[in-house]
Design goal:
This protein is mostly beta strands. The protein contains 4 helices and 16 strands.
């Protein structure tokens, strides 16, 4: 069956329900279903709280089923430890993704395009997490400082720019977002993220474009821009939400280097909003580097973040991270040091973390 054009997707879905069953392939549920998991476990010492503990940092459990050659579904459970309220300390489960995915026709040089509808990926954080590969250590820059969420209720349209880059590059360097000239994602979302109620009728428009300018010379170099426009997820309509991220990445079998600059207003909820409901302006930057040690499974990594919120007084947050990683199978063990500075107060964490993928 040919893939459906983007503009006809909802028309076909609403007015021709049999379309989803019209497939030449009649294989069973088990043949078309995959189950996977990703666990982040740790043991660390927090010198601010004077506390050491074993902990579940995060865990994901995913089921994907291909319904036919056009439609597929995804269910991802997010497992974490409750940090507040009456259930503090309990291991809780909530949905991260619950979506219908539909392949769409190629549009000129846009390839492998698709739509997601439901509880879906937002454009930026999935790209950033897969670029560094260090979600096990902690949240990415824009997530750590509550600038945006990785998933939300809405609709996304995404794909590759050009055909896929060489299989050798995908195997030796990275299989993620393998467009020869880059990739893209755009969508409309509630705005509060997958873990928040909707407090207003505003919707967020968000997008990302990543360009690989010289795929035959330096295939690992990409330039990315991501934006969000709308209102913060509050009951007032005064809180503008603006996000601009400029990102440069260089990746090879021996190194990873990421640099990004952020400028915007507000956040996806009320952390950067005044008492009368207006958004503060913010800016910041982040750098990440990883160097693989030749002929070993070890690597060294480091990251530095700085975020400034221009409130009545400047609120400055800084993070420095460094560590050693050992890889085995598709998994990682890392020893890392995380120093966070907020309002002149330091929090230092010394940690061993384990990432398990299956």
């Amino acid at each position: 069956m040919k893939r459906i054009p983007v503009i006809l997707f909802f028309v076909l879905l609403l007015f021709n329900p049999a379309f989803a069953q019209d497939s030449k392939e009649k294989t069973g549920f088990r043949e078309n279903t995959s189950i996977s998991g990703e666990w982040f476990l740790g043991f660390g010492y927090n010198d601010n709280k004077k506390l050491n503990s074993f902990r579940l940092k995060r865990a994901y459990f995913t089921i994907k089923t291909r319904l036919n050659d056009v439609f597929s579904v995804r269910y991802t459970q997010d497992i974490t430890t409750d940090q507040e309220g009456g259930d503090i300390g309990n291991v809780e489960m909530r949905l991260k993704y619950l979506l219908l995915k539909a392949k769409t026709n190629d549009i000129f040089f846009l390839k492998d395009t698709y739509l997601e509808f439901g509880l879906v990926h937002r454009p930026w954080l999935d790209y950033e997490q897969k670029s560094t590969g260090y979600r096990v250590q902690g949240k990415m820059f824009s997530d750590r400082y509550h600038l945006l969420s990785s998933a939300d209720f809405g609709v996304s349209f995404a794909g590759l720019i050009g055909k896929k880059i060489s299989e050798e590059y995908q195997e030796k360097v990275s299989p993620d977002y393998p467009g020869r000239y880059g990739s893209f994602c755009f969508g409309i979302y509630n705005g509060g993220g997958y873990h928040a109620l909707e407090y207003n009728n505003n919707k967020i428009v968000e997008g990302r474009v990543s360009l690989r300018p010289l795929p035959d010379i330096i295939p690992g170099v990409q330039f990315s821009y991501s934006f969000s426009r709308g209102k913060s997820n509050t009951e007032t309509n005064n809180a503008d939400y603006r996000l601009n991220i400029f990102h440069l990445s260089s990746v090879s079998a021996g190194h990873k280097l990421m640099l990004q600059y952020y400028r915007g207003k507000g956040g996806f909820y009320d952390q950067y909003i005044s008492a009368d409901g207006y958004s503060y302006s913010n800016e910041g930057y982040s750098g990440f580097a990883e160097l693989m040690i030749p002929e070993t499974r070890f690597s060294l990594f480091t990251r530095y973040d700085k975020l400034i919120s221009y409130q009545e007084d400047e609120i400055i947050q800084e993070t420095f991270i460094a560590g050693l990683t050992y890889r085995f199978l598709k998994n990682k063990v890392l020893l890392n040091y995380d120093r966070y500075k907020y309002m002149g107060v330091y929090t230092r964490i010394y940690e061993m973390a384990l990432e398990i993928n299956f």
